[in-house]
Design brief:
Strand order of the largest sheet: 2-1-3-5-4
Strand content: 5-15%
Oligomer: single chain
Number of helices: 18
Helix content: 40-55%
Number of domains: 3
Distance between the termini: 73 Å
Largest sheet: 5 strands, mixed
Structural class: alpha+beta
């Protein structure tokens, strides 16, 4: 049977797929990929930072290949599938005459290139966004039971990719409010929610740790125009490179002539406006807005076929983008070619240096959910990130990694040179210092519960509860407590020990799954006169204080 796809389309799609496979095989993992690989070692319906789709892709990839390709294979598949879907969406009588222009447009987009082989949550986000637009287009042409169910499953896949996916669904809905009267649209919502129930259960069982962190506990810097709002506009240029003037020209020339185009424009402008407003509160990361590239490809490709100037300049500047991108991609593999020191460089050599000296000794990293999985991937050693109050919670705070290093001789690795027994130097000259601990023991899952908001009074006796989630008793003599004082941006500015007294002074151990009550008084801060939040931390066995409690508001 003769293919309906132009031969040149299959050739260019195949070239892109082959290039991504080669790039995947020869490029060392970046830190985020190693972190998501760590997710996939213990499959679940959710993880600390993201829903589970990225782990699913890595797990499937591992069935086919080992090494880096065992992390990235499905990303290569999804990226090619995304381009096929986008081509299928465009209904234009002349599109087969502009196959090369289509590929110049999509291959010239900077981050779209990266997600062609890197395995990150944005990889499935882009795929399911394209798929949802395809399904929605078919749904508005023929709203029935089949397309209602397919749209629900697609929305669930989108939400399992990344929480930002909610914006895609919301803005498509806002573009066509009559959907609220469509029974099949409601069916799709019900199907999506049913598919998402396992993740809701996971969130409940893990005390909504992801939502609490992202919405309430995550620190943020004070507003800075250059870093936040101006940086947001820089990102809008960066995701398209030299083609950006004609990309946005095509966007602003587009008209909402039908329901589908209206959905495309609502999605693009909705995301742009949402993150512009957000830029007055936080720094907008480039990948947060990458989702607009999917509807923009459709809008701009249509524009290119109708406008000679846009077609000419996007083609010319797109080719320039592609040359630069290919050079940078080569630099990811071969460090001497790279104009910058990138995070793929030097890790394998550093890991070999460490393991040559310590063998299969478990490795504990101070405040590094990046190094812990990277070393585990390339060395096979058990690793753990010991997070203290100067850092942030992450997947290592909630999974069983801690248990794998308990009561073992470990090498403790940090950026601090004090008491160092070993020194390791990376190719960018950064140093990592190690010291042995013969019987490593931590209780980072202990929780301090401080009800708030509370009055900030040095004379008033305060109360907090200590909860032990472990299945064993813990000697209270091994524990010390402190209070971390934070500013309005939830940045820790002061840390002071507290004299915590048990209400029942005869207790020597906290039993498994039990709770004890302590009293204490706030010590006077040394560096922060007007703290806004506090948190009670725990030191065990002389290690640095951990992040054991929620940020509690002061009044």
């Amino acid at each position: 049977m003769k293919s309906k796809l132009p031969r040149i389309f299959l050739i260019l799609l195949g070239i892109g797929f082959l290039l991504n496979l080669l790039q995947s095989y020869f490029t060392p993992l970046i830190f985020d990929e190693a972190y998501y690989w760590h997710f996939a070692q213990n499959m679940a319906w959710g993880y600390f930072d993201h829903p589970s789709m990225v782990a699913v892709l890595i797990k499937i990839s591992s069935f086919f290949f080992n090494g880096e390709l065992g992390v990235r294979f499905m990303s290569c598949i999804l990226s090619s599938a995304t381009l096929f879907i986008l081509w299928s969406i465009v209904d234009h009588p002349k599109k087969k005459d502009y196959v090369v222009h289509f590929f110049v447009l999509v291959y010239s987009m900077t981050l779209l290139n990266a997600y062609g082989f890197l395995t990150l949550p944005d990889t499935p986000l882009l795929f399911f966004t394209a798929l949802l637009l395809y399904v929605y287009k078919r749904f508005i042409e023929k709203p029935d039971l089949f397309w209602g169910i397919v749209m629900g499953i697609t929305m669930a896949g989108l939400m399992y990719s990344k929480y930002h996916a909610a914006l895609v669904i919301i803005f498509i809905l806002l573009s066509n409010l009559k959907l609220v009267l469509n029974k099949y649209a409601w069916l799709s919502v019900i199907v999506a929610l049913l598919c998402y129930v396992p993740h809701f259960i996971w969130l409940y069982e893990n005390e909504f740790v992801t939502i609490n962190y992202h919405l309430f506990d995550r620190p943020n810097d004070p507003y800075n125009f250059n870093k936040y709002t101006l940086g947001y506009f820089v990102n809008l240029v960066a995701i398209f490179g030299f083609t950006f003037p004609w990309i946005y020209w095509g966007l602003f020339k587009a008209k909402a002539s039908d329901k589908f185009t209206r959905a495309l424009l609502f999605l693009i402008f909705g995301v742009l406006i949402f993150f512009f407003i957000s830029s007055f509160n936080r720094r907008i990361q480039t990948q947060w807005i990458i989702v607009i590239s999917i509807p923009l490809i459709i809008v701009v490709f249509r524009f290119m076929m109708e406008n000679e100037i846009a077609k000419k300049w996007i083609y010319r500047m797109g080719l320039l983008n592609i040359v630069i991108i290919l050079f940078l991609r080569a630099g990811l593999i071969y460090e001497p070619m790279s104009p910058i020191y990138y995070e793929t460089h030097g890790n394998i050599e550093l890991i070999k240096d460490v393991t040559d000296k310590v063998g299969n000794t478990p490795l504990v990293f101070e405040n590094s959910y990046r190094n812990a999985p990277m070393f585990a991937f390339y060395s096979g050693n058990d690793t753990y990130s010991l997070n203290n109050e100067s850092y942030r919670l992450n997947q290592y705070s909630i999974d069983d990694s801690e248990s794998k290093v308990q009561h073992k001789k470990i090498l403790y690795l940090s950026k601090r040179s004090s008491d160092a027994e070993l020194t390791f130097t990376k190719s960018d000259s950064t140093k990592m210092y190690g010291k042995y601990i013969d019987n490593f023991e931590t209780f980072r899952k202990l929780r301090t519960l401080l009800e708030g908001p509370i009055s900030f009074d040095f004379e008033q006796e305060q109360t907090f509860e200590l909860y032990n989630p472990y299945d064993f008793d813990i000697d209270l003599k091994k524990l010390r407590f402190n209070v971390a004082y934070m500013n309005a941006s939830k940045k820790v500015k002061d840390r002071l020990p507290i004299k915590a007294q048990l209400k029942n002074s005869s207790v020597t151990h906290i039993k498994a799954k039990d709770t004890l009550t302590y009293t204490f008084k706030f010590p006077k801060p040394r560096k922060l006169n007007d703290p806004k939040y506090v948190r009670i931390g725990i030191m065990e066995n002389g290690l640095n204080y951990g992040i054991n409690g929620r940020n509690t508001k002061l009044k």
